[in-house]
Amino acid sequence: MSSLERPDDFEVRRAHLRGLSDEELHARFWTLVEAIVEPLVEEARTHTSPSIERSVLLRMGFSSVEAKTLVDQMKGRSVLGHGPGSLVLKLAQRRGVTVREAGLELLAGRGWEELAL
Amino acid sequence: MKLKLEETLDLREVLRDLDRYRPRSKGWSWREKIPEHQVGPFVLKDTSRDLKRSVPLLAAPAFGNIDPQCDRVITTEIASGHFEDDLRRMRMAAWHGADHIMVIRTTGQSHFDGLIEGTPEGVGGVPITRKQIRATRKALDAIEDEVGRPINFHSYVSGLAGPEIAVLFVEEGVNGCHQDPQYNVLYRDINMHRSFVDAAEAKRVLADGGLLQLDGAHNANATAKEAWKVTPELFVQHAINCAYSRAAGMPADLIALSTVPPTAPPAPKLRLDLPYAVALREVFAGYRFRAQQNTRYMEADTREATITHVLDTLISRLTSADIQSTITPDEGRNIPWHYNNVAGVNTARQTLMGLDGITELVELKRDGVLREQVRELKERAVLFLEEILEKGGYYAAVAAGQFVDSGYYPERKGDGIVRAAGKGDGAGSVVAREADYGAPVCSHFGTNRYADGNGKPCDAIGGCTLCDPAKIQYIDELDSEDRVEKRLKTPLAEREAGLLRPEVEKHGDGIVCVTLFVPGTAAVAEAAALEMAGHMGLQQPEVISRRLMHPAEGSAFEIKGVLDMALRIDQLPLTAREVPLPDAEIETWVRPRAIQVVAATVGEDEHSVGLHEILDIKHGGIEKYGFHCHDLGTSVPVERLLDSVEATGARAVLISTIVTHGGVHEGHMQRLDALARERGVRERLLLVAGGPQVTDELAQQCGMDAGFGRGTTGRDVASFLVRTLRDRETG
Predict the structure, then answer these.
(1) When you count CB atoms within 10 A of the terminal residue's CB, does the N or C end of chain A come out lower?
(2) Any chain B CB within 8 A of the CB of A83?
(3) Is the ipTM of this complex over 0.90?
(4) Each residue of B183-192: pLDDT tens digit?
(5) What SS3 state is found at B93?
(6) Where are the beta strands (DSSP E) in B524-632?
(7) Cα dihedral sign, B550-B552-B556-B562
(8) CA angle, corner B177, sides to B175 and B183, nearest 5?
């Protein structure tokens, strides 16, 4: 038997559950689930990914092809953590143009030095 | 776009102006239950509104042609690789009661780090793209109008591009989806951090878009070595996705558990699967249930699969389900064929109508072995959760191989799926949000400087695409060759030229399936069956199902092959079917004449349904025009019919012949004709035969004046009688 193998010791393990009512058992089930999920949710709240940022740029009115190029380039410059959408918006505000125009400028290779980090 | 009843879906029209198409509604649609629903002669308990147009179940003609619709959404999964062919199949499925169309994605889309655009050909599914979604949603709008019921369009939000696909789905009016980060981790080896971080964003977008979400837990049934032992873990997988979805802002009534009864006969299916189904519904009260049918044990035999699916549906009716999903009975042997999607839908529809009101008659026991097993499953699931926390959380538990182990937890066989948190596709791609992180759009999850103030986060950019769809950037195609317009050239040209080929999946595939029984040992019979198929002209014949009847006496085979021929529609020997006379014209002629008609089911044949349909006033039969019908019943010898002719002075004899073994139906017709001649009454009589195997041509060859086959109505028969008798009167 390898270390990953184990016989069915349900009868032993269940000892502390036996006395619970069905309602108490359900409550215990969901409390444990919440405890497992909580750190995963916290990670998601405080982190981002290329796909998330592409989805933000899509929502800002860029095509999938434009969003992918922008995010790849932002990733290359290690600025994903500031939010590519936010960076494009700030560039637009600084230049007094629309976010779409600002994004197209970046896609044309211009304005990268102006990104406000 | 509007569909014409007698015309195939106009694909050119579907593809026209897609850059301007907008979905006319968003979010999921349920069927509305109508309690105590009077449908034809019945008061039904578990039904919803009837369809405007549909193809009823085959037994419907015996019950006034009713087509009641159950109270659950019915799913069918479609994806041949050509979405343009799938649209026609969706229309067929909708006419049989499907209102949840799940489109399977092409192999490998999960690992595509971004969106796919255009309409490239897929493998085992279709590439999900904006253009493909718009075309499909537009066609479904028209199909909805044709059948008179909303149709939910569904695909998958998994893989490396989950958040983008979620945005795409909400923008384009997709109604439902699968989203479960555990699926990525366990079955697609996508990095765990990436999967969960992406999933929160995707779920938030989906929640705001009102899409119904299904989880991916059912896949463990298909993967685990002994599916019924993975049940404790399935509680855990469902629960993690439910809790994670809630945390991302999704309401419980948009979260559905995707659950499958895990076994099939010869296993004691209900004894194993029912306690599991009951326990799940108790622990997850308040969530939705999508009851899937089992695919795990399906081989090539469609009948065998169907029986398992009926039992699956029985379990979901005895417990509960909001969606009854269906599996095509041929899924075990090939990418499903058109008519097998319809067969799968009908398995659910027929079973659920048969079970209408069952919970008023039976209830599950509240003590004994059922309750003991329910309790045990719940406790095993709780123990599973405890060990995840003991191990240090979800990532650590997956890395330790705790998931999809074939032991009946807490038993472990050591064969679970092992994934390391730092590995997998997309590893290292997740980054921490900086203090100034922001995303000026709606439906964004987590810290966001634009979500802190009043108003919408997208106010800063003057509205995001979710608020202002005019901002969506539409890409038509990126590839000039691999695209739908190119693929459609030949099919559309053939259609315009009036050419027809058989088809099971894609336009013009030419595939047909023949069934043969060959008396011989299995190996000899199979070799012979293939050879015979070749002699029938089938190219690339392939055995797709073999069923042993006896090691020496023979086997039955289904063989598929390509029939490489195109027929011209204008050269078909179509027998011009006579247009029936208007009701009023028939009645005006018949009623004053008091015409006597004698009728019976002849021979050793107890079927009375067919004849009732033709005679009875209730069923729209010929009595309503004023014919005086003398129905002598079933198993009537032809002599008795002629005795009755003499007694009543009848001018027509209608015989029904259902049983056709050894050509007995032909014998009855010939004998009726001969005996009428013998008795000297043939000249003044009209002899008419009907039955599912009867054709007008066959009947006339056997001495009848006319024959009527499947689908005949009383009006057809009355029209014939009136036309012929009227001609005789006027000479």
Answers:
(1) N
(2) yes
(3) yes
(4) 999 999 999 9
(5) helix
(6) 539-550, 554-562, 567-568, 596-601, 628-631
(7) positive
(8) 175
